[in-house]
Write a structure and sequence with these properties.
Elements lengths: L1 H12 L2 E2 L5 E2 L1 E8 L5 E5 L18 H14 L6 E4 L6 E6 L17 E6 L2 E6 L2 H17 L3 E9 L5 E7 L7 H13 L4 E5 L1 E3 L9 H6 L2 E3 L21 H12 L4 E8 L4 H6 L4 E2 L2 E5 L6 H12 L7 E5 L7 H19 L2 E5 L19 E4 L7 H5 L6 E3 L6 E2 L12 H6 L29 E9 L9 H8 L2 H10 L5 H11 L18 E6 L4 E3 L5 E3 L9 E3 L3 E2 L4 E4 L4 E3 L4 E2 L3 E12 L5 E5 L4 E4 L3 E5 L2 E4 L10 E8 L2 E6 L5 E2 L1 E6 L3 E6 L4 E2 L2 E3 L5 E11 L3
Parallel strand pairs: 4-5, 4-6, 6-8, 10-11, 10-22, 11-14, 14-17, 17-18, 18-19, 19-20, 20-22, 21-22
Antiparallel strand pairs: 1-2, 3-9, 7-8, 7-9, 12-13, 15-16, 23-43, 24-25, 25-26, 26-29, 27-28, 28-43, 29-42, 30-41, 31-36, 31-43, 32-33, 32-42, 33-34, 34-35, 36-37, 37-38, 39-40
Bound molecules: 2-acetamido-2-deoxy-beta-D-glucopyranose (NAG) (12 copies).
One 2-acetamido-2-deoxy-beta-D-glucopyranose binds next to loops.
Length: 711
């Protein structure tokens, strides 16, 4: 009896694969080991086919997706060639396309993203409704291999996402993020089968009109992140180092697209539009300069010029014009949205999306509604009711209800991470399940049917309400670290429970390809790097010497600084440096430097050690510099004295310690709407690349350098 119960349990438990998201699965007896599959065979008949039904205008071919899959396998030390062939080969993957008719979304429509995964002892065949469907099938394989110790159970999965728009929105207007960070985020999202990355490219801090003078508003933090040399937008963007050039934007879009993720750009107006008013002050409403004065005859032409300049950059069929939280005249607003939608369609044949703001009104003369082909991104019930205002009037609606909003680091109203309880148990009136058609988590009457074809999917935003010094780049990732995979399961239509999610996520996290958002460093023990300078070895032809790493990880460094054998130290100055093969280490870490400072150049920020994500400085206070911001302690280092300086990254906090003194925490003072400062932790990666060198601003000695992941 006990055996039978166990057998039934196993059968039920394996009726879907417990990946993120889950995949429906009909299991057979046995498994195939990834190690035993020797090549990826791409069906010759479809190698150059692309999916034209998705939002991207640069869809990869089946063969290109196969090559990216091969790169991912390489990260598991599995090297397989990509070949062309007419049919499956024993001991291989076979990637092909099949009849799309069997892959249906929640509304019962054909979905290009569906796939069939057939795993037999002879090999694995993925048959996609399109190349994108095949790509999602490869994600299932990578995940199952991690979850099943390098093997895939035999059986068949026929899997289709319920909704076509699945993803996240990042506020890159009030906080800059480097291109590489965005590309890593796409890789992370793609692993969980999200296909949309909405990038909010312009915004400003809240214009507190009760408090700010006109002049202060005109100086308030406001940014436009695209950089063009075109004279028609000269002066709009004054911050090239915190912007995306055409080349960088192409890199972001094509990297994301290569993993099935479409970058959806947003340029925000006529609200949150202070950056345009700082450019052309006559375009602002005198009552609130963050709002455009649409009745000024120059406003719409100016915004058309901006869009004409940047539309050729955008490799997507839909663009976002913002149109959020406009509080001035509704008729002006509707005219603005329609004029922009017309312009965008005429110039580029693209569709337009807006945030739900002023719902349509019927049977009211003199009121022009927004075109029904403008898609609506619903976010709050005080703005609109997505079902009654939009869906019932034939608008398509994307669910971005603020029940899944995240505001980075601090907010008076929103959480700092995605609410996982809500993700897994969201709607009590719907037996505890949340999916993209659930706009209102507490009132079922407000929700359309699951199969309503006007529900596009869900995109969950992360806002940087309090600007650039609230967080470092990676804190956007940490705010979403478990939220992305959790939401991804539900956006697809998956069935994970919170408990299953926890197990799967912890197992998968270290194996997500093509990104290192956590800045992990491989190490044999808790000591990652251990240099002393008493015995430099091996003088190189280029005049550098090897610094032996005693950790056992062989992270040997190089230096052209003279060693001082009497003091067992390296003599560091602006004319020499010490370089490690590492660059950055994420939480948790302890970085310890024993050093003696003999001279600090008062004219510049002295750099003790610099890395890809941060720089440790003496300004002269001990300072971490990252993302263009300084985070200073009220402590400095005594001169002419050997001290041991430790930097500690512990969870979401960062500390420094000198010798055996108490730890002091780096904190950030976040300005809240000009009203007060909020002091919060800041989690900064350890800088690991270079000590000394041109412009370092100090002379002295380094006795040892150690990095550990114990805290
Ligand atoms: C995992 O697979 C390896 C061989 O690939 C095997 O040695 C090991 O015993 C397996 N572990 C478990 C828990 O099955
Ligand atoms: C908006 O612009 C119009 C036309 O230029 C002007 O008459 C009006 O005063 C402006 N309104 C505000 C509030 O700035
Ligand atoms: C315009 O876009 C639509 C929808 O994406 C597409 O079907 C159509 O072929 C495009 N027309 C042109 C001229 O590119
Ligand atoms: C929405 O579409 C339905 C069916 O095509 C039509 O009967 C109805 O009038 C439309 N409603 C509006 C507001 O356009
Ligand atoms: C920082 O981490 C602590 C402990 O894990 C947690 O309670 C807190 O909410 C985190 N803060 C932020 C802003 O994420
Ligand atoms: C998370 O969501 C649940 C269910 O909606 C709710 O009860 C809880 O208060 C939320 N937690 C936070 C921190 O907002
Ligand atoms: C639920 O939504 C319906 C439709 O909008 C509304 O009539 C009703 O008052 C709401 N119920 C509650 C308890 O808010
Ligand atoms: C989720 O469960 C339902 C009901 O068992 C099933 O029809 C569906 O295929 C499952 N979806 C996924 C993605 O596992
Ligand atoms: C010096 O040469 C070694 C190889 O011998 C190389 O690894 C190192 O990067 C070189 N250093 C510099 C500063 O060029
Ligand atoms: C960009 O340049 C400005 C002006 O020099 C500087 O204040 C800011 O820190 C820089 N930003 C970054 C991310 O380095
Ligand atoms: C540097 O530290 C001193 C105390 O040692 C403090 O008074 C000063 O405000 C700090 N400077 C900055 C810019 O944080
Ligand atoms: C870092 O340490 C904290 C405890 O301070 C722990 O909660 C967290 O899981 C650790 N993070 C990593 C990545 O090890």
């Amino acid at each position: 009896m006990a055996t039978l119960v166990a057998a039934i349990f196993v059968a039920c438990a394996t009726a879907h694969l417990l990946g993120i998201p889950t995949s429906p699965f009909a299991p057979a007896e046995g498994e195939v080991r990834l190690q035993d599959l020797g090549s990826i065979v791409v069906d010759t008949n479809f190698a150059d086919v692309v999916d034209e039904h998705g939002q991207t205008l640069i869809p990869p071919t089946l063969k290109e997706f196969a090559q990216t899959f091969a790169q991912d396998l390489h990260e598991f030390a599995i090297d397989v060639p990509v070949k062309l062939g007419e049919s499956p080969v024993k001991g291989s993957y076979f990637l092909t396309l099949g009849d799309p008719v069997k892959y249906r979304d929640a509304a019962g429509r054909e979905s290009p993203e569906g796939y069939t995964l057939s795993v037999s002892a002879a090999g694995i065949t993925i048959t996609g409704a399109s190349p994108l469907g095949v790509w999602w099938g490869t994600r299932t394989i990578l995940q199952q291999a991690v979850l099943s110790n390098g093997s895939i159970p035999l059986g068949t999965a026929v899997d289709t996402p319920g909704w076509g728009t699945r993803g996240m929105m990042l506020d890159a207007g009030r906080h800059y993020y480097p291109p590489e960070f965005l590309v890593d985020l796409c890789a992370y999202m793609s692993y969980f089968k999200q296909n949309t990355f909405h990038l909010h490219l312009s915004d400003n801090l809240y214009n507190n009109v009760d408090l700010y003078t006109r002049q202060r508003s005109l100086e308030l933090y406001a940014r436009f992140r695209l950089w063009s040399d075109s004279p028609v937008v000269a002066g709009l963007n004054k911050f090239k180092n915190e912007s995306y050039t055409r080349q960088q934007f192409d890199f972001i879009q094509s990297s994301c697209a290569s993993r099935g993720v479409t970058l959806l750009p947003e340029i925000e107006a006529p609200g949150h539009a202070l950056v345009f008013v700082q450019w052309k002050p006559e375009l602002g409403l005198s009552t609130d300069l963050s709002l455009l004065n649409i009745s000024n005859p120059k406003t719409i032409p100016t915004m058309k010029t901006v869009w004409s300049t940047f539309l050729p950059w955008f490799q997507t069929k839909t663009v976002h014009i913002g149109a959020d939280e406009y509080t001035a005249d509704v008729n002006d607003y509707n005219d603005f949205v329609n004029a922009m939608a017309d312009h965008i369609h005429t110039v580029s044949n693209k569709s337009t999306r807006i945030w739900g703001t002023f719902p349509p009104k019927y049977n009211q003369s003199g009121y022009t509604n927004i075109y029904q082909n403008v898609s609506i991104q619903h976010w709050e019930y005080f703005e609109d009711n997505p079902l009654y205002d939009y869906i019932e009037n034939n608008y398509t609606v994307l669910n971005s209800d603020d029940s899944f909003y995240v505001v980075n680091k601090w907010s008076g109203s929103y959480p700092q991470t995605v609410n996982l309880t809500r993700t897994f148990e969201g709607n009590p009136s719907n037996r505890g399940l949340w999916y993209p058609y659930i706009f209102d988590i507490s009132n079922k009457t407000n929700n359309p049917l699951r199969e309503d074809s006007l529900v596009l999917g869900e995109v969950a935003p992360l806002w940087n309400d309090y600007g650039p010094n609230s967080s470092v780049y990676s804190e956007a990732f940490y705010a979403w670290k478990d939220g992305i995979p959790a939401l991804a399961d539900k956006q697809w239509g998956g069935n994970l429970t919170r408990e299953e999610f926890g197990h799967a996520f912890n197992a998968l996290l270290p194996f997500i390809p093509a990104q290192n958002l956590e800045r992990r460093v491989r190490s044999k023990s808790s000591t990652i790097l251990d240099y002393t300078f008493n015995s430099l070895s091996l003088l190189r032809a280029n005049g550098t010497q090897t610094v032996a790493d005693r950790s056992g990880n062989a992270y040997d460094g190089w230096t052209d600084c003279p060693s001082d054998s009497a003091n067992s130290s390296l003599t560091v100055s602006p004319s020499c440096s010490m370089i490690t093969p590492l660059s950055s280490k994420g939480r948790n870490y302890t970085l310890t430097l024993s050093l003696r400072i003999d001279n600090l150049d008062p004219a510049i920020d002295a750099t003790i050690i610099a890395g890809a994500d941060s720089t440790l400085m003496l300004t002269p206070n001990i300072t971490l510099f990252t993302g263009g911001e300084y985070y200073r302690l009220n402590t400095s280092i005594p001169l002419y004295q050997r001290v041991e300086l430790s930097l500690i990254g512990r969870g979401n906090q960062t500390f420094a310690k000198i010798d055996t003194s108490l730890e002091v925490e780096f904190k950030t003072g976040i300005g809240i709407n000009g009203e007060h400062f909020q002091w919060e932790p800041i989690a900064i990666e350890a800088p690991l690349k270079i000590v000394g060198g041109l412009g370092c601003g100090w002379n002295g000695k380094v006795f040892d350098l150690r990095l550990s992941n114990s805290i």
